[in-house]
Design goal:
Blueprint: H1 4-25, E1 61-62, E2 67-69, E3 75-79, E4 86-91, E5 97-109, E6 114-120, E7 128-134, E8 138-139, E9 143-146, H2 151-163, H3 172-175, E10 188-190, E11 193-198, E12 212-213, H4 214-230, H5 250-264, E13 274-280, E14 292-298, H6 300-317, H7 322-342, H8 348-365, H9 368-380, H10 389-400, H11 407-429, H12 443-460, H13 463-476, H14 508-526
Parallel strand pairs: 2-9, 10-14
Antiparallel strand pairs: 1-3, 3-6, 4-5, 4-7, 5-6, 7-8, 7-9, 10-11, 12-13, 13-14
Helix pairs in contact: 1-11, 2-14, 4-5, 4-6, 4-14, 5-6, 6-7, 6-8, 7-8, 8-9, 8-10, 11-12, 12-13, 12-14, 13-14
């Protein structure tokens, strides 16, 4: 339930922030015993079959398997009906007990059918590798305490898009054992007319097949660019890609690689945008038969998404290459105009993309024709009813533009953001795992909620929201009911042991939201 003096106070701060933002300060510019028995038997097999899988045993002590910042809060979650009074933090190298803490019994969790308790060890601030043990419950996985504990995972999340580059050779110098030769380097035929082939090489693979969808690419790019816009200082020029050290933040270099592909997806004569590159499996699984690759027909959705992403990139890239930024803005405008001339009855997705594209074009170019579409969409109130990534992108851009805006609509956006933040925070506070869900929902849902909370925290710098965001990272890194880390190379027991597809960095869109969340955490912990 949202209410009380706290909300009124935060709302007042939001409105004040909006006022400052709209006067040019631009505030936003900124995870039985089977029993053998005594009876003998003779097997019909030559040897007993011992190939069954042993069930994975979930530890009774759940921690962030990567670790904790030296001075940040540190807490483990304990599962079990029989809870001891104390727990011990053990130095993994020496085996010595370095901290003794008491447990706070939280009781029975009916929704998850488990008994839980908390153990706080924030007072331990010595760098090192540790694990927690307690009578009856055993021991946890190991974790690290240090000042730069999240730096590498942040860099790795950003670098996932380099690993997915299509059309270029990835060398061992940059990707280690994942090195491979350039793929998909030839021209590709149009699905609607196979007599025509065009060059659509480059860009990022979005799945194991190597498919590339324009709408998915544009949303992912826009999320990455918003994280750069809000927390520019955490994005460096040293993540270990070929462009590192060129004076441009590596995130912008990486997004530019995708921009180059998007520009190839636009018809240079009309401004229409092809929807994507689809790869079909070989017909009838004929040995030696290569997969069929087609360029999908142009679509209104693709054109709106294209306009949104390229206008946003143009706005942020103008400080590094004005001429290239202008090229991107002109391409975005041409896609917008083509969609306007050929639009039919729009789906909800198209309406959202049209709104977001209009906000980016309005901020970058300032033409009132774009503003008209922004106000039309906001006046419908559609964005108030549910959380949506594209709606969020459009709203943040609108309230951060320096051009004339509708103050009433901006205040409405601020109130929506504040309400979402309070709901997410309240849900997390009442949840045993301190996240905004019950632990069974899709991680993508949690990541989207963290996007909303991160935006609000950027405006008002609320310590409570910062804590909620960091608790979600603890969740993704192993402090969850499955005791599994969903991030690459982070922890003793990761998603790879269960299902490769569960990894957040392995999911094209989810990884961009992870970068968004990590950029806020990195900024908060390093300031």
């Amino acid at each position: 339930m949202i209410g009380g003096k706290g909300l009124k106070y935060k709302k007042a701060i939001m409105i004040l922030a909006c006022t400052i933002l709209l006067t040019g300060c631009n505030v936003l510019n900124l995870v039985k015993d089977g029993g053998q028995g005594e009876n003998n038997f003779i097997s019909m097999e030559e040897e007993p079959d011992l190939s069954y899988e042993v069930p994975v045993s979930t530890p009774g002590i759940l921690v962030n398997q990567l670790g904790y910042m030296t001075t940040s809060s540190k807490m483990a979650i304990f599962k079990g009906e029989e809870i001891p009074e104390v727990f011990y933090v053990i130095d993994a190298e020496s085996g010595k007990n370095v901290y003794t803490g008491t447990l706070e019994n939280k009781g029975y969790n009916q929704e998850l059918d488990e008994y839980n308790s908390y153990g706080d060890f924030t007072a331990l601030q010595t760098s090192g590798t540790y694990y927690i043990e307690a009578p009856v419950l055993g021991r946890s996985y190991t974790f690290f305490i240090g000042d730069q504990v999240y730096d590498e995972v942040f860099k790795e999340a950003c670098k996932q898009y380099y690993y997915n580059r299509c059309g270029m050779t990835l060398t061992e110098e940059y990707v280690g054992t994942g090195a491979h030769n350039a793929c998909h380097t030839g021209k590709t035929v149009l699905q609607e007319d196979i007599s025509i082939s065009i060059d659509v090489t480059g860009g990022w693979h979005q799945d194991e097949k190597g498919q590339k969808d324009v709408v998915t690419a544009a949303k992912t790019m826009s999320t990455l660019l918003l994280s750069y816009e809000l927390y520019e200082n955490v994005f460096q020029d040293d993540t270990g890609i070929p462009e590192s050290g060129n004076g441009v933040p590596d995130l912008l270099d990486e997004v530019k690689y995708e921009v180059e592909w998007l520009l190839k997806m636009q018809d240079q004569q009309t401004g229409a945008v092809y929807a994507g590159v689809t790869i079909y499996a070989p017909n009838n699984n004929v040995p030696g038969k290569t997969a069929d690759i087609y360029v999908q027909p142009a679509s209104c959705e693709a054109e709106r998404a294209f306009a949104m992403a390229l206008a946003k990139f143009s706005y942020l890239y103008q400080n590094y290459d004005t001429q290239y930024a202008t090229t991107c803005l002109k391409a975005a405008d041409r896609a917008w105009k083509y969609a306007q001339l050929h639009e039919m009855e729009e789906t909800d997705t198209e309406e959202k993309l049209k709104f977001a594209a209009a906000t980016e074009l309005y901020r970058a170019a300032g033409q009132q024709s774009y503003h008209k579409f922004i106000k039309e969409y906001l006046n419908t109130g559609q964005y108030l009813t549910e959380q949506d990534e594209v709606d969020l992108l459009g709203c943040v851009t609108y309230i951060s533009t320096k051009h004339a805006v509708d103050l009433e609509l901006c205040e409405q956006i601020m109130e929506m953001l504040m309400a979402q933040a309070e709901t997410i925070s309240d849900d997390a506070r009442s949840n045993i795992y301190l996240t905004s869900g019950n632990g069974e929902q899709d991680n993508n849902e949690l990541l989207l909620q963290m996007m909303y909370l991160t935006v609000v925290n950027h405006i008002i710098a609320n310590h409570e929201y910062e804590t909620v965001i960091e608790n979600h990272l603890h969740y993704f890194l192993g402090r969850n009911a499955k005791a599994i880390s969903y991030l690459n190379n982070a922890g003793d027991y990761t998603y790879e042991a269960m299902n490769e597809s569960m990894g957040i960095m392995k999911q094209f869109e989810a990884d961009s939201k992870l970068v968004f969340m990590l950029s806020e955490i990195t900024n908060t912990l390093n300031r």
